[in-house]
Specification:
The protein is built from 14 helices and 19 strands. The chain is an alpha+beta fold. It has one domain: tRNA-splicing ligase RtcB, CATH 3.90.1860.10. The strands form four sheets. Strands 7, 8, 9, 11, 15, 16, 18 and 19 form an eight-stranded mixed β-sheet that branches. Strands 1-2-3-4-5-13-12 form a seven-stranded mixed β-sheet, with helices on both faces. β12 and β13 form a beta hairpin. α4 packs across α9, α5 crosses α9 and α6 runs antiparallel to α8. The longest helix is centred in the middle third of the chain and has 35 residues. It is globular, with a radius of gyration of 21 Å. The mean pLDDT is 96.
Length: 476
């Protein structure tokens, strides 16, 4: 991206000045190098988002931002329904509520290392993964409706996990306002056998350990210390979420024309939040969020079963579960006035600062855990939300490293078999259903996650707590 087209507000904050039809400026949080490496399409998409009605303060991009559908991946936009604000499919994405769940094990690196091969193989066998993968749950249409209403709460009621898990899941495991009747028969049909599955692409299940502690107090509150072993699960609403996006992009495009909303890109198809079309889509998104929360809850149950078999001394507990493709109703201060906004985060993780009621009581004094997935050959991070991040970015942070190469480009450059061999030499076990999938997700296909997280940290959006290094990764 050309720097001369931006105004530098600070070392890690850049502004796209308000011009033409923009209702607000654009802002990108990144280092100079990350900005220079970004595609110009990011600037174009943020500028287009800034033209949408009812948008507040600024259209935002995180340091992992890259070209996406409508919004850039790593894009954030907050809309006020009282000012004609819209709900936009391109601001949520196709993988509704894709997110990360991290589980503590109560074990140390020293405990796990001798059994890591056995553990990786058992997880690979137990947790279904891969394109079109099917789980052991074969649900009926009425049971899928129960999933879409109940989310992780439904899963716990079915015996997949414990009541205490729900405290450490966003929305306490169930998003209100979900209406299964607003989800198509096709979307439900595609999900009948997919609850409790990882899927493919950038989704994974990793055994990780704390390699570095940056904030000892926050780490203590989160139940972590040097060499603690955790499990991280990254997946979303699978085929159901994708089908919701496919179904509603057409309806929202018609709605934009009906209400005279001037969109700069067809992929920004949207409807007024308070319109029948907007309310219908939001209720379908809520159902998609519940699908993802149920999915990660069932996978967590499978992980617990593996540990009971391989390492029965483990105590697998929830640390946190947070999504990064959502629209959430939240209260934020705008010019000193508290407003109810619909905050779109597409490839951006919610990162609420201390004191917010949405945060589990045990974490409220230090801020919400922010779970940032890296690549299978580098690191992941846990950060904490900040008051500064609430002010600057509606309590939002990056969601990962961000792609540097497309999947097609990655497959031309990398070979899955070679990557698996190279990572094994570095002490990281990869269990995958597809060599092509490994090539697409090669560490070299992504930006430097440490640089991305440092930009979030230095911009004040969230603060580093611990770094996680992978021991074993299960891929589709």
């Amino acid at each position: 991206m050309e720097l001369r087209s931006l105004e530098r507000k600070s070392e890690y904050e850049w502004e796209i000045p308000r011009t033409g039809d923009m209702n607000v400026p654009g802002k990108i949080f990144a280092s100079r190098r990350l900005i220079e490496e970004m595609d110009d399409k990011v600037k174009e998409q943020i500028t287009n988002v800034a033209c949408l009605p009812g948008i507040q303060k600024a259209a935002l991009a995180m340091p992992d931002a890259h070209w996406g559908y409508g919004f850039p991946i790593g894009g954030v936009g907050a809309f006020d329904p009282e000012e004609g604000g819209v709900i936009c499919m391109g601001g949520i994405g196709f993988d509704i509520s894709c997110g990360v769940r991290t589980l503590r094990t109560g074990l140390s690196l020293e405990d796990v290392k001798p059994k890591i091969e056995q553990l990786a193989e058992a997880l690979f066998r137990k947790v279904p993964a891969g394109l079109g993968s099917k789980g052991k749950l074969h649900l009926s249409m009425s049971e899928i409706d129960d999933v879409l209403r109940g989310g992780a709460v439904w899963a716990v009621e079915q015996g997949y996990g414990y009541e205490e898990d729900l405290e450490y899941i966003e929305e306490q495991g169930r998003m209100e306002g979900a209406k299964p009747e607003n989800v198509s028969h096709m979307a439900k049909k595609r999900q009948l056998h997919e609850v409790g599955t990882l899927g493919s692409g950038n989704h994974y299940l990793e055994v990780q350990y704390v390699s570095e502690v940056y904030d000892a107090e926050a780490a203590r509150v989160y139940g972590l210390e040097k060499n603690s072993v955790v499990i991280s699960v990254h997946c979303g609403s699978r085929a159901l979420g994708h089908q919701i996006g496919m179904d509603y992009i057409k309806e929202l495009y018609k709605a934009a024309k009906k209400y005279g909303i001037p969109i700069k890109d067809r992929e920004l198809a949207c409807a007024p939040i308070n319109s029948p079309e907007g309310e219908k889509y939001f209720s379908a998104v809520a159902a998609g969020i519940n699908c993802a929360l149920a999915n990660r809850q069932v996978i967590s149950h499978l992980v617990r079963q593996v540990f009971e078999e391989v390492m029965p001394e483990a105590k697998v507990e929830m640390l946190y579960d947070i999504s990064h493709n959502t629209c959430k109703v939240e209260e934020h201060l705008i010019d000193g006035e508290r407003r109810t906004l619909y905050v779109h985060r597409k490839g951006s993780t919610r990162a609420l600062g201390p004191g917010r009621k949405e945060i589990p009581r045990a974490y409220r004094d230090v801020g919400q855990p922010v779970l940032i997935g890296g690549t299978m050959g580098t690191f992941s991070f846990i950060l904490r939300g900040t008051a500064e991040g609430l002010e600057k970015a509606f309590g939002s942070a990056c969601h990962g490293a961000g792609r540097a190469k497309s999947r097609r480009q990655a497959k031309r450059v990398f070979r899955g078999e070679r990557i698996i061999q190279e990572l094994r030499q570095r002490g990281i076990i990869i269990k995958a259903h597809s060599y092509a999938g490994v090539a697409e997700e090669a560490p070299g296909a992504y930006k430097n996650v440490e640089e991305v997280v440092d930009a979030v940290h230095n911009a004040g959006l969230a603060k580093k707590v611990v770094k996680l290094r992978p021991l074993a990764c299960i891929k589709g």
